[in-house]
Amino acid sequence: MDYNTRLVIFGAGTLGAVCGLVGVYLLLRKRSLIGDAICHASLPGIALGFFASVASGGDGRDLSFLLGGATVTGIAGALTVLLLRRWTILKDDAALGIVLSVYFGLGMMLLSLVQQTREGNAAGLEGFIYGNTAGVMVSDAWLIAIISAVVASVLLSLRKELQLLCFDASFAASQGWPTFALDLILIGCVLVVVIVGTSIVGVLLIIAMVVIPPAAARFWSDRVAWNLGSAASMGWISGVLGALSSLAVDRIPSGAAMVLTSSLLFGISMLFGTKRGIVWRWFQLSRLRARADDEHVLRSIYERLESQERAPMPRGDLRSEAIPLDELARLKDWTIHRTRRVVARLVRGGWLTLGADDGIALTASGIQHSLRAIRRHRLLEHYFARWAELSPEAIDRSADYTEHALDDSLLAMLEKDALAQGEPIEVPPSIHPIS
Fold first, then answer.
1. Do 3-276 and 282-420 come out as alike in CATH topology?
2. Where along the chain do its domains lie?
């Protein structure tokens, strides 16, 4: 790997990491589209920087003039959004839409004028629109490294203050924190990152690097510290892989490659994230449904035996009497197939036994688990009966819906309430007839 390739990978990876870092706070602050407004507003600044460079005797490709112009119009775009939101009746989406369209239209008009000049065809300004990793030089890499280090230092040193601003700005203001100054610092960091990143990712796609990695990180954790690390890591991976793709295949814009890589990481996170991923949530819901079905079956068997005065003893019995499988299916209003599936799972867990004649009996473990399920259910029934004017059938259904979400603290509160009413808390009697 030659020196220029290492330089490009370093610049793209560093930029991606700092984009992910600043994007976490921007996403939590619900200000992601302000970055988009800054991106589009910087386009006319690049054209104005070109004209300023030519007027000063340059060839129009002086990076200081181009980035300086982008900074000026980017700041103007951000301030325009803030002023429209503060001094008019426009909502966020309308203000952002106006600024995006007006500044981008102005930028396209100025770029067309640039192309009509003698220096415009050789200026290479299209790299600022689509991104150009191949054009990264040593000075650009140092600039990206310095800016990234400064932005990361500011964000990490103000981590607690920015967290408070993002989660409860009103409380922060009431405690005397300078929320407006913190907002300006955050927007300033976004502005600097966006302007520096235009030469690699392009003005149209740099905002994606600010939004997509933090959004992907949210599927893995709710903790801000983890999100910062995850978003920075995903941004770095997107930058490195995107730069390599752009260098390996001709005519692939670097910005598009980086954004598509980050989108791939977002798709993986959306599917397999351990906090909000689709597959993980489906797995968790499946476990909860299976647990609810298991407890309903154990409770139904015990209550059926209880109604026939054949209930096993809470202590001492190693096995209950059996009931037919089809009778259990009729009690639960389930199909035979579903009933067999749940019973087979409980047999594997050692809570039920299934005889050759399809007779189902509770084991010693099954008796204890069924008693715990009945206890939670009936404590809830008695609580609802005291505080809600519902029919016994409605109370039974309500307890069915909520009993599986009880944790130890809620169960203790129900026990305390039952003791205050003089009710038994071991296995309270049912408030409705058991069939």
1. no
2. 3-276, 282-420
pLDDT tens track of the chain, all 435 residues? 667 678 778 888 888 899 999 999 988 888 777 777 888 888 888 888 888 887 887 766 677 777 788 888 888 888 888 788 778 888 877 888 888 889 888 888 888 887 777 665 545 566 666 666 666 677 777 888 888 899 999 998 988 888 888 888 888 888 888 888 888 888 888 888 888 877 677 777 788 888 899 999 999 988 888 999 999 999 999 988 888 887 777 767 777 888 899 999 999 999 999 888 899 899 988 988 898 889 889 988 988 888 888 888 877 778 888 999 999 899 888 899 999 999 999 999 999 998 888 899 999 999 888 888 888 888 877 777 777 777 777 777 777 777 777 777 777 777 777 777 776 656 666 665 565
Fold adopted by 3-276:
ABC transporter involved in vitamin B12 uptake, BtuC (1.10.3470)
Write down the residue that tokens 């949530």 correspond to. 281
**Which H, E and C letters describe the chain, residue by residue?**
CCHHHHHHHHHHHHHHHHHHHHHHHHHHCCCHHHHHHHHHHHHHHHHHHHHHHHHCCCCCCCHHHHHHHHHHHHHHHHHHHHHHHHHCCCCHHHHHHHHHHHHHHHHHHHHHHHHCCCCHHHHCCHHHHHCCHHHCCHHHHHHHHHHHHHHHHHHHHCHHHHHHHHHCHHHHHHCCCCHHHHHHHHHHHHHHHHHHHCCCCCCCCHHHHHHHHHHHHCCCCCCHHHHHHHHHHHHHHHHHHHHHHHHHCCCCCHHHHHHHHHHHHHHHHHHHCCCCCHHHHHHHHHHHHHHHHHHHHHHHHHHHHHHCCCCCCCCCCCECCCEEHHHHHHHHCCCHHHHHHHHHHHHHCCCEEECCCCEEEEEHHHHHHHHHHHHHHHHHHHHHHHHCCCCHHHHHHHHHHHHHHCCHHHHHHHHHHHHHCCCCCCCCCCCCCCC
CA angle 65, 71, 72 (to 5 degrees): 90
Q: Are 42 and 77 in contact (CB under 8 A)?
A: yes
Beta bridge partners of 363: 319
Q: Looking at the domain 282-420, which fold is it?
A: Arc Repressor Mutant, subunit A (1.10.10)
Q: What is the pTM of this model?
A: 0.76
